[in-house]
Amino acid sequence: MLYQQIASNKRKTVVLLIVFFCLLAAIGAAVGYLVLGSYQFGLVLALIIGVIYAVSMIFQSTNVVMSMNNAREVTEDEAPNYFHIVEDMAMIAQIPMPRVFIVEDDSLNAFATGSKPENAAVAATTGLLAVMNREELEGVIGHEVSHIRNYDIRISTIAVALASAVTLISSIGSRMLFYGDREDGGNILVLIFSILSLILAPLAASLVQLAISRQREYLADASSVELTRNPQGMISALEKLDRSEPMGHPVDDASAALYINDPTKKEGLKSLFYTHPPIADRIERLRHM
Questions:
Q1: Contacts of 206 (CB under 8 A, 6+ apart)
Q2: What is the DSSP string of 198-225?
Q3: I want to staple 30 with a disulfide (CB 3.0 to 4.6 A). Which of 18, 44, 197, 260 is the partner?
């Protein structure tokens, strides 16, 4: 089952790349047409930006994502209990020891990143480390180590890169929309399609992230229990996560899906784009394992 999931995640990485590059192509063509009057130029430029983003995340994902989330690397001497739990979970999961980071924030949260187990890293907030007991912390770290072992992190970090690229190009296009030079402005259908692409592409990128994120969280919860042999530890950790306040500092929408718990605590209509399944559902699944 585990190896099938790893193989499936590697296949999904290819599908994810194709979908995001299609979105990039659409929004690039739209921006090129609306701003420069040439959809070909915009399309090529968007794909170049997408390739740069994707390659940079594949080879430097850990440093980039940790920098985006204001995380600092720690040693065994600085956080011995946390460091040893990461070491134990990695040993049980039979993966290389990830780098260990801390995010200075009072909320309860954690995430893992990297393009493969050999360059992966785990981060936890100071609030999580202060509030969780050892069993609960093992459950959380087991969850993040499971993301690493299952190659979820590759999908997640590439999604972060390409969602960021889509948002960047959309933002540039929106700001320059009224300064465009469209020689064939009479083609109303092309104009409407371009404007819709500009508006809807970031939304589509978010929906792609949402679609690939929710099921991974259920699997990582179950995999954590497999590593710790302690479902109650994971259940208790999730209950505390559910009561946590949002992150104190702004979290980029593209990287929010990496966290074990939604760092923004969306409410109202925004909750429709919640990248995480409800914690109550996650707890219920663990109780029926």
A1: 163, 253, 273
A2: HHHHHHHHHHHHHHHHHHHHHHHHHHHH
A3: 197
> CB-based contacts of 88: which residues, under 8 Å, 6+ apart?
138
Query: What is the tens place of the pLDDT at every residue in 93-126?
Result: 999 999 999 999 999 999 999 888 999 999 999 9
Rounded CA-CA distance 131/241 in Å is 10
User: What residue ranges in 119-257 does DSSP mark as E strands?
Assistant: 121-125
Closest CA to 256 of 274, 243, 242, 244: 274
Measured at the alpha carbon of residue 133, what is the angle toward residues 275 and 230, in degrees to the nearest 5? 70
d(CA 264, CA 251): 7
Tokens of 106: 């009072």
**Chain length of the chain:** 289
Catalytic residue among 136, 138, 144, 217: 144
CB burial readout 150-184, b (16+ within 10 A) else e: bbbbbbbbbbbbbbbbbbbbbebbeeeeeebebee
pTM exceeding 0.90: no
267 is catalytic: no
Band of the pLDDT at 251, cuts 50, 70, 90? confident
Instruction: pLDDT band for 166, please (50, 70, 90 cuts).
Output: confident
